[in-house]
Structures are given as C-alpha cells and as structure tokens.
Amino acid sequence: MISNDIDWHDVIKREARGIDDADLGEVQEIQGNYVRVQRGMIDKETFYIPKEQAESYDGKVVRFRLSESDLIGRYQDEPFMKDAESETLESDMNKVEEELDSLEVKEK
C-alpha cells in the first residue's frame, strides 16, 4: 500500500517505522499533509513527517522512507510554524522594500 492508498484515519496510535526497521515512534495525529509521530516515555520527541514519505501500511505499522538520522533535526519543527515564520519574514521584507521605495520617491 503506497502513501496515496493509506487510510490516514486508521494509522492513529499505530507504530511508525523507518529504514532498517528504525523505531520512529507512534502516530499521534494527522495534520494536513503531515503525520505527527511521538516517541519516548519520559523525554518525548515529536516529529512531523510528510505523508509523501510514507512507504506502506499493513494495518499495524506505518513504514516511512526515512532513517533515524533523517528524522532528527529535519522533521522536529511543526511545518505550519515554519510556513508562518517564512510568511512573516516575507511580509516584513515587503514592508521594508515599500518604505525604501517611498523614501527614494520623496528624495527626488
């Protein structure tokens, strides 16, 4: 079953595994195009894995095309927070450019 064929509602609370059977944790929820996975008992780690990285689902385990090293650092931030930061930065840059343009017009 490839990622397009996966019933994403069925994977909640299922085990997530990666390349070489790496333990990626347990699926907690689906957020848009991302699968939120959590692992650990005391020091919990949360990862946001793109659905497109899913390789298969057998009814018990969701397998992803990721190694544990791919997961660390790359998928720990909430994707929508990255998008929001990017949009804010872009908006701020546009405002600065507009102010510079208006200053140049006033100087002429």
Polypeptide structure, described:
This protein has 2 helices and 6 strands, in the order ββββββαα. The protein has 108 residues and is of the alpha+beta class. The protein folds into 2 domains: 3-76, SH3 type barrels (Roll), CATH 2.30.30; 78-108. It has a 6-stranded mixed beta sheet with strand order 4-3-2-1-6-5, with no helix packed on it. A hairpin with a 5-residue loop joins β3 (34-39) and β4. The longest helix has 29 residues, at 79-107. The relative contact order is 0.17.
Summarize the structure.
The protein is α+β, with helices and mostly antiparallel strands and 108 residues long. The chain has helices at 68-71, 79-107, and strands at 15-17, 23-31, 34-39, 45-50, 54-57, 61-64.
